[in-house]
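User: I'm new to structure prediction. If I give you an amino acid sequence, what do you actually give back? Let's try with this one:
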Amino acid sequence: MRIKLKYILKAVSEIYNIPLAELKSHDRHAILVRPRKIFYRAGTEAGHTPSTVARYLDRDHTTILHGVKTAKCTPEDILAIIETAKERQDFELNYFRS
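Assistant: Good question. You get back a string of structure tokens that encode the predicted 3D arrangement of the chain. For your 98 residues, that looks like this:
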């Protein structure tokens, strides 16, 4: 099962200590740029298309493509975010299943 974008965004929000609403906003404050680009990259690495990621944040798909291309992060950063998101998704699925 593919990791849902909401869990990836929550993981980025936790790691960078930025509220979800600010990450989803259209504000272009410098403090939001890097975490957003990392979300774009993590979302596409998790198997979502740039168009899907763009629709989730109400952006254009070319914004996502540019963000993925210019994101300054290591593969370990992305892996940590994806692992955190997967754990959170698995927990919620198992918690609500029982």
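You can read the tokens as a compact description of the fold. Here is one thing that stands out. DSSP finds six helices and no strands in the chain.
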